[in-house]
UniProtKB/TrEMBL annotation, chains A, B:
Residues 6-165 form the 6-phosphogluconate dehydrogenase NADP-binding domain. Its EC number is 1.1.1.60. It is an enzyme of class 1 (oxidoreductase). InterPro entries: 6-PGluconate_DH-like_C_sf, 6PGD_dom2, 6PGDH_NADP-bd, HIBADH-like_NADP-bd, HIBADH-related, NAD(P)-bd_dom_sf, Tartro_sem_red. It comes from the Bacteria. One of its GO terms (molecular function) is 2-hydroxy-3-oxopropionate reductase activity. It comes from Streptomyces tamarix. This is 2-hydroxy-3-oxopropionate reductase. Residues 168-287 form the 3-hydroxyisobutyrate dehydrogenase-like NAD-binding domain. Pfam families: NAD_binding_11 (PF14833), NAD_binding_2 (PF03446). SUPFAM superfamilies: 6-phosphogluconate dehydrogenase C-terminal domain-like, NAD(P)-binding Rossmann-fold domains.
């Protein structure tokens, strides 16, 4: 007889499916809900239970985990008569692992507290591969006691697990992550175009650059994308566009200036407007190439 | 009796002094010249020879190495009746390790060729510590044969030594290095202000960020500068201002757009204008703090 908490998992997409399966492997009972039958079937085959409705999924759960695309989806599943707050039991812990605006996380925590439901925001980085291999970085906002009680669950999903501060802090750190990643890609993109137009051996140059103070994880992981103009995702411009919206909104809310982040947000938006939303975010190189008169 | 080439070293500043001493340690004869007697005395104490003039220093040299602050100084010592090109012997190799505009390096190589003098541009990164410990990164532009003949000298000065392309390519890669470093610092600075204003535990946040795709050598080496507002140089804003001028000029010359590099160049210039030119370049954090209404 298991003493592990019963888990409801809402949202079984590219990230949610492998993550929920990692909980099954760790011995948890997982009841899942999403709108696609095929994803529910996959969960059932992996040993989970497919619920017929959101309310059914969460009713008996000790822990409800949500992993959906953006703030509107989190609000849609949290609120209303059929939502999580109305149907989860008092004392349940709601862990939202979606990447959304910090403000939405703070509001959700307040609304949930009124129902006796505790909340953690816990967005991740590491992508599909990190989800499958259970090596995600998990950035958490909320109360220490709730973090402590959720830690065994997080440890079945990721490797670097950090409580960053009060409600919304996980989302804030995730937003900062996306800001730095986009700007660092842009730095490389500008350097690549400058180096190539100057007639330099690009591969030799990127190797020596990555060995010094200009080195970065972006340069290490995206070097081949730059060299080969291979922009198969990876992490899509469409998603980074969403995230640049989150970080610029969140920064505006707290009065933090992002003079460079704002420019990069525009370049990401411009790529999307030109039909490149499905490409990997290293395709910021294309934006710089176009600005530099190259036909791409 | 030594068969090593005789070396003239011009410019014995923070970088030039320890670098020339590393050549003495490696067994080279080094004759030095600079404008400060105390630096000449230091070279003599280390086993080198102090020349009374630039012409005297270079007259018998097989290899002339220059390490001076910027393009005007390189032009001042290279050209004119008392300069290197007029006084070095035919067949000598001139290695300019200063960080200057690629255009100046290309022009110098042409003018030198007319005198039978070969040239390499070979700027470095790694700072004073890298110079002292002989672990500099050396980015070289010029002919393969000249690179090959200079390699033993470079190996006495640095660790990562790369021929990046034709004349000027070393300067181009160094310029790209300074571009990426400044932009990556700016990315961190914007993230830090955003995180702090959002009430996040900054140290925890920077640790988790550095472990993922947002990680960089800048974040690793400058994290404590950000956390403690410690802006003791390090690499001074004044010097990075010079370098942002080089990269924006060089990019303009080849038609490469630097939409983000140009903004960061402005922020560096603004710090300098506000009297912060003597601070470490991590002080870009101050620029973002001021833009965000903080009194610093």
């Amino acid at each position: 007889m298991s003493t592990l908490p019963k888990i409801a998992w809402i949202g079984l997409g590219i990230m949610g499916s492998p993550m929920s399966e990692n909980l099954l492997k760790a011995g948890y009972q997982v009841t899942g809900y999403t709108l696609e039958q095929e994803k529910l079937d996959r969960l059932a085959r992996a040993g989970g239970t497919a619920a017929a409705s959101l309310a059914d999924a969460v009713r008996d759960a000790d822990v409800v985990i949500t992993m959906v695309p953006a703030s509107p989806q989190v609000e849609a599943i949290a609120y209303g008569p059929d939502g999580i707050l109305e149907n989860a039991k008092e004392g349940a812990l709601l862990i939202d692992m979606s990447s959304i605006t910090p403000r939405t996380s703070v509001d959700l925590a307040k609304a949930a507290a009124a129902k006796g439901i505790r909340v953690l925001d816990a967005p991740v980085s590491g992508g599909e591969a990190g989800a499958v291999e259970a090596v995600l970085s998990i950035m958490v906002g909320g109360e220490q006691a709730d973090f402590d009680s959720a830690l065994p669950i997080f440890q079945a999903l990721g490797k670097t697990i950090v409580l960053c501060g009060p409600h919304g802090s996980g989302q804030t750190v995730k937003a900062a992550n996306q800001l730095i990643v986009a700007v660092n890609i842009q730095a490389c993109a500008e350097a690549v175009v400058f180096l190539e137009k100057s007639g330099v051996d690009l591969k030799a140059a990127l190797d020596v650059l990555n060995g010094g103070l200009a080195g970065s994880t972006v340069l290490t992981r995206k070097k081949d994308n730059f060299l080969q103009r291979d922009f198969a995702p990876g992490f899509r411009i469409d998603l980074h566009h969403k995230d640049m919206g989150i970080v610029t909104d969140a920064a505006r809310a707290v009065g933090a200036a992002l003079p460079v982040g704002a420019v990069v947000a525009q370049l990401v938006a411009s790529l999307r407007a030109q039909g490149d939303g499905g490409l990997d975010h290293s395709a910021l190189l294309r934006a710089v190439e176009r600005l530099s008169g190259q036909q791409v």
